[in-house]
Design brief:
Porin, single chain, mainly beta, Outer membrane protein beta-barrel domain-containing protein, ten-stranded antiparallel β-sheet, Beta-barrel_OMP_2, 52% strand, 12% helix, 237 residues
Length: 237
């Protein structure tokens, strides 16, 4: 009976909360929030980075269909948010953040198993400038979409290293450019605004630094290597 009573109380509380947030006529929290010219926040989240490879014809002639495999892992994100209101449904956002990720590259065409895998750990300082297009607010929720451009500084790029893959050193360019697309929902609470969002990041330029040997099995015959990323952020204002 005690368990049933506790479950009933929790269900009643959840129902009351849902009615307050999403009912037909909910009480609107933070009614003047979106009228602010400038406001700030911070975010925490997760990210998964990948690579998109483009190959020359000679790559397939040498290696058949054995393309490079990428095993992404989940990393973490933390950063700040600055929001400038441009008009009723349009905002400009700057979201600098620190992103840590790891990718494992597998080269199935390399016979030596000790040289077949490259572990690529990256620490990015990410500088996105985004336009936020918001829908009409419904009660205490307001969906939106994001689009914009970004620059990323890879602190683990090894760009200046004189060693290459023959010494076990995988090298990438330090600076990269991207375009980003995403969506999210603003939830208005009594004392703050909470925003979960998801965003795709698409590299615009080749990031690979080739080995000195043009016939390198790690970098030879690769026309481009571009970042692909997925961000899941939880923002508090």
């Amino acid at each position: 009976m005690k368990k049933l009573f506790i479950a009933f109380c929790l269900l009643l509380t959840a129902n009351t909360f849902a009615q307050g947030m999403f009912g037909k006529n909910p009480y609107k929290n933070q009614q003047d929030w979106d009228q602010q010219r400038v406001h700030y926040g911070y975010f925490l989240g997760f990210s998964s980075y990948n690579f998109k490879f483009d190959y020359s014809k000679s790559f397939y002639e040498k290696n058949g269909s054995n393309e490079i495999l990428v095993e992404p892992t989940f990393g973490f994100n933390v950063g700040l948010v600055g929001n400038l209101r441009l008009m009723e449904y349009l905002d400009l956002r700057f979201e600098p953040g620190l992103y840590y990720t790891k990718r494992n590259l597998i080269y199935p065409h390399i016979e030596n198993p000790d040289q077949r895998i490259r572990n690529v750990s990256s620490t990015y300082i990410h500088f996105p400038l985004l336009l936020k297009f918001s829908a009409l607010r419904a009660g205490n929720i307001r969906p939106y979409i994001l689009a914009g451009l970004s620059q990323s500084l890879n602190l683990s790029s090894n760009e200046t290293s004189k060693e290459d893959n023959y010494q076990g050193r995988f090298r990438m360019k330090k600076w990269t450019s991207n375009y980003e697309l995403g969506l999210g929902i603003d939830f208005y609470f009594e004392h703050f605004k909470f925003t979960p969002s998801i965003r795709g990041v698409f590299g615009l330029q080749d990031e690979l630094i080739r080995d000195k040997n043009p016939n390198s099995p790690w970098t030879g015959d690769i026309e481009s290597m571009k970042t692909r990323g997925l961000f899941i952020n939880f923002t508090f204002h």
